[in-house]
Design goal:
43% of the residues lie in helices and 18% in strands. It has 19 helices and 20 strands. An eight-stranded mixed β-sheet has the order 13-7-6-10-11-12-1-18, sandwiched between helices. Strand 4 (134-137) and strand 5 (144-147) form a beta hairpin.
Length: 553
């Protein structure tokens, strides 16, 4: 009853009166016919699992999706620019970041992390385990996940070449973490290697998942390739070095998401299946690439912060390197058949098309920040969400379904639920702001909207959101071969076709984060609020005739 009532509330601003009246009848019929049975089956599933949703969610939202990982499934982030005086300083930063990551992994393994909390509420810590050596492997119907938490190496990429890079050594049968002087020495060997152009195998991981599955099968016909794939898929993480291009932070944020097609090395200098990739550019940017099926944003950002903090606060040791004991970096080789060359050509072409289609804009709003809204006892997030909806309405003359990600880590193995940000209250306020209404009237609507938005946010955080519950009922119906009219009613699809996909990711050490739109005529909006300003990233597709350029937002 609670979910269906909220569902009707959520679609009211999106459909006509006639559609809404029809949907009320269909929803009430569902409540008294198939609905109770589906709910009972869902409760049985919940009684026999630690989290009834987690396995389903990973399959439906990620592993069964056959779109390419870049843009469609891979969020990215970028730090503010560092002022390197030399390539050596870049290697210092990378070295200390690697040590920060690996030391953090050790804390995860030993369960030594401080408890994450949100507003005093403890959060589930299981996602942190997925940061260590996580990989996505393409499958015929759905992908799978693979973890190698005890690996002793990472992957380093430079100019499209891959290296097995040991970060642990062994002495008298005991494993030890290499020192900063040893890691930097080996990194310098990689970036100063005289590398010849070769086929960029990494670009294959940017293909749609069906094509990458077939290309990987072709790769595995060679024993050399099998060994190389095994090395990659058992690594802890990936470090990528890109040559600088003397461009804006906007350029580099897009570069982290998909690469720059003017520079083959950066576009192909990725392995998108690796859970955590960090890109260091020679002119001072640090980019983060997340394989989303493994983990959500907050735990991966904590990892990135650990690396950055180590790089900022520590120094590389000046001890001499004992070359006799130092584990050797291994250049990873491939055998490339004619069919593989065709797959590589296909991947290059499709990545170029995707890159040209993606429009990305970074904007820093400096009129006010969190301090200002808090001084009026208003939720800063509510105000930002209102601005996003107001902008959409001004551009398109109508409201749309708006998705705001809310963490459900309050629960065991929780990931996210959706806050349906578009509401009757937000639409009334948007219309009032665009018409000659009085200030007191607008302020009353503002308070009503903020109260509703905060209420919906709290409910989603406490497991009372509706999107995942409705998904569970629909998946149970599929398993039972039932086709309730409720799920085929047009407003059900309208309410989940999110032309606005939004997420707040607050972090003081990062400049901006970004992800692609989830529908062709939609927008991806990510924001990072500070005390006095807010950083935004906007994405859209240039191929859509029904959306505007991200630069106009």
């Amino acid at each position: 009853n609670q979910t269906l009532k909220k569902y009707l509330e959520s679609i009211r601003p999106l459909v006509s009166f006639e559609q809404f009246a029809t949907t009320i009848r269909i929803t009430n019929r569902f409540l008294t016919t198939e609905g109770p049975f589906l709910q009972s089956q869902l409760l049985k599933r919940a009684a026999n699992t630690d989290n009834w949703l987690s396995e389903w969610w990973n399959q439906v939202a990620y592993l069964s999706v056959r779109l390419p990982l870049p843009v469609h499934q891979t969020p990215v982030a970028i730090s503010e620019k560092m002022e390197y005086l030399s390539k050596s300083q870049m290697l210092d930063f990378a070295t200390l970041s690697i040590l920060g990551y690996v030391e953090f992994f050790e804390m995860i393994r030993k369960d030594e992390l401080p408890q994450d909390k949100l507003g005093g509420t403890p959060l589930c810590m299981r996602q942190y385990k997925s940061l260590i050596g996580g990989h996505r492997v393409p499958g015929e119907v759905a992908d799978t996940l693979r973890f190698s938490p005890n690996s002793d190496h990472i992957i380093v990429m430079y100019q499209g070449h891959l290296f097995k890079f040991p970060i642990f050594g062994y002495r008298n049968g005991n494993r030890y973490l290499l020192g900063s002087h040893e890691i930097k020495y080996s990194l310098s060997l990689v970036v100063n290697s005289p590398l010849l152009p070769s086929e960029p195998i990494g670009v294959l991981t940017s293909l749609d998942r069906d094509s990458w599955y077939r290309a990987r099968k072709e790769l595995k016909k060679s024993q050399i390739n099998c060994g190389t794939l095994e090395t990659i898929e058992t690594s802890l993480l990936s470090i990528c070095f890109d040559d600088g291009a003397d461009e804006s932070i906007e350029y580099y944020l897009k570069n982290s998401m998909i690469g720059d097609m003017r520079n083959d090395f950066s576009s192909y200098n990725r392995w998108f299946d690796i859970g955590i990739q960090t890109v260091f550019t020679s002119d001072g940017y640090c980019e983060y690439i997340l394989e989303h099926s493994l983990v959500d944003g907050p735990p991966s950002i904590v990892l990135g912060n650990r690396g950055q903090f180590a790089a900022i606060t520590r120094s590389v040791s000046v001890l001499p390197v004992n070359l006799k004991e130092l584990p050797k970096v291994e250049y990873l080789k491939w055998e490339v058949s004619s069919p593989l060359r065709e797959y590589i050509r296909k991947a290059k072409y499709e990545l170029k098309i995707l890159s040209e289609n993606l429009d990305l804009k970074i904007y820093r709003f400096t009129e006010f920040g969190k301090d200002f809204t808090k001084s009026y006892k208003l939720s800063h997030d509510s105000i930002i969400q209102l601005a996003i909806q107001l902008t959409f309405y001004k551009l398109h003359g109508e409201p749309t379904a708006c998705y705001e990600s809310v963490s459900t880590r309050k629960f065991y193995d929780g990931r996210t639920d959706a806050l349906r940000s578009t509401s009757n209250e937000s639409l009334r306020l948007v219309k009032a702001l665009l018409s000659p209404t009085s200030t007191p009237f607008r302020l009353r609507l503002l308070r009503e909207y903020v109260q509703k938005h905060e209420e919906n946010s709290r409910q989603a955080f406490n497991g009372q959101g509706i999107d995942r519950h409705l998904l569970g009922l629909k998946l149970i119906a599929n398993e039972e071969n039932l086709q309730p009219e409720f799920f085929s009613d047009p407003p059900f699809s309208i309410s989940t076709r999110y032309r606005l996909s939004t997420s707040q990711v607050p972090n003081p050490l990062l400049s901006c984060l970004a992800f692609g739109p989830v529908v062709e005529d939609g927008y991806g909006v990510c924001y990072n609020p500070y005390e006095a300003f807010t950083n935004f990233s906007f994405t859209s597709y240039t191929s859509s005739k029904d959306s505007v350029s991200a630069c106009k937002l």
